[in-house]
Each structure stands twice: as C-alpha cells, then as structure tokens.
Amino acid sequence: MGKGRLEAFSDGVMAIILTIMVLELTAPHGTDLAALRPLIPTFLSYVLSFVFLGIYWNNHHHLFQAVKQVDGRVLWANLHLLFWLSLTPFVTAWMGETTFAVWPVALYGTILLLTGVAYYILTRALVALHGQESALAHAVGRDVKGLVSVAIYLAAIPLAFLSAWAACALYVLVAVIWLVPDRRITKTLAQ
Q1: Which of 6, 50, 156, 176 has a CB 3.0–4.6 Å from the CB of 170, allowing a cystine?
Q2: pTM (predicted TM-score)
C-alpha cells in the first residue's frame, strides 16, 4: 500500500501534539517582565520538547523519502511511535510546572527512551519490508546515532534521581546530536 496516508496522518498527529504543548503555556497574571520569571521552567521544558518533536518530524520525513510502500507492520510501528510522542505534552508540562523535579525529569527521560525505541522499531519494520539490499537499508545502516541516544537516555533516567539537572543536560546532549538532520538517507538516495 502507498505511504501517503501514513505520512499525512503522522504530520497531523505531530501538529496536534505541538498545538497541545503550546496551549500549556499560560500568560502571567502580572504586567511587568518579572511576572514571566515563574514561567521560565515551563518555557524551557517546552523549548526542549519542541526541539525533540521537530527532530522526530524532520527525521520521519527524511526516512519516508526512501520508503516506497508500507504494510500493516509498518502502520502499527508508526502508531507505536506516535503513541509515545503523544505523551510528550504531559511530561513536558509536569516537568516544567514542578521546576524540573526528580520524578518528572525521570519520566520525561522514560518517554524519550520509549520514543527512541519506537523510532528504531519503525526503521527496522521498514527495512524488513524493503529488504536488506534496499536503498533504505543502506541509508539507515546500523543507526549508531539512534543506539547512542537510547544509551544516553538509559544513563540519564537513573541519573535524574541524583541530579535532575544533569539528566536534563544529557537530554539536551541527545537533541544536539540530532539537531543536524540525518543525512544518510539524502546521501544514499542521491547516489
């Protein structure tokens, strides 16, 4: 089956997730700039989550440039990814409203971890459908960046109980690693 509906649905879900997140940002009650100070943690958690969602949207888009078709397994793998992404607004709000408390930061990392695992499962389902010799399989390769990201999340989650800020620094590190779009697919398709 074609990939168009899956891409359109995924784009729509991601747009809704971003909309829900921005609606969590409430205006301050005061009229001066000092009234914004209590909103800084909420805004910082929003920025981090916005960057992560942007990274997933960007890489999902690049990934599907190499995809020719989808099947039921791919549809379910994509829904699995969207499920974990859809929890981002909840953990983002909780982390921001609690000023990066231990449990919200750990749960945030858990959602990031499970989203990363879901993206990995999606790529493997696509490679299985297209074959090990496909351009997609060559472009995705062993996905070292993805596996390193998962390892960092696995380290950051327990670290949150020692230092929530250190765990958040690791989450930012993963975002920085992925900020430059994954060029493997574009490079492979250009050859």
Answers
A1: 156
A2: 0.93
Domain that holds residue 175: 4-190
**Which residues neighbour 153 within 8 Å (Cβ) at sequence distance 6 or greater?**
109, 110, 112, 113, 116, 170, 171, 174
DSSP category for residue 180 = S
Is 128 a residue whose pLDDT tops 80? yes
Q: What is the pLDDT of residue 187?
A: 76
Instruction: Give the pair of three-digit tokens for residue 189.
Output: 């398709």
- The backbone region for 163, taken as left when phi is positive above 0, alpha when psi lies in -120 to 50, beta otherwise, is beta
Q: What does the pLDDT read at residue 87?
A: 98
Query: Which residues have a Cβ under 8 Å from the Cβ of 2 and sit 6 or more positions away?
Result: 69, 70
Q: How many domains does the chain have?
A: 1
Would you put residue 144 in left (φ > 0), alpha (ψ -120 to 50) or beta? alpha
Tokens 């596996």, residue?
147
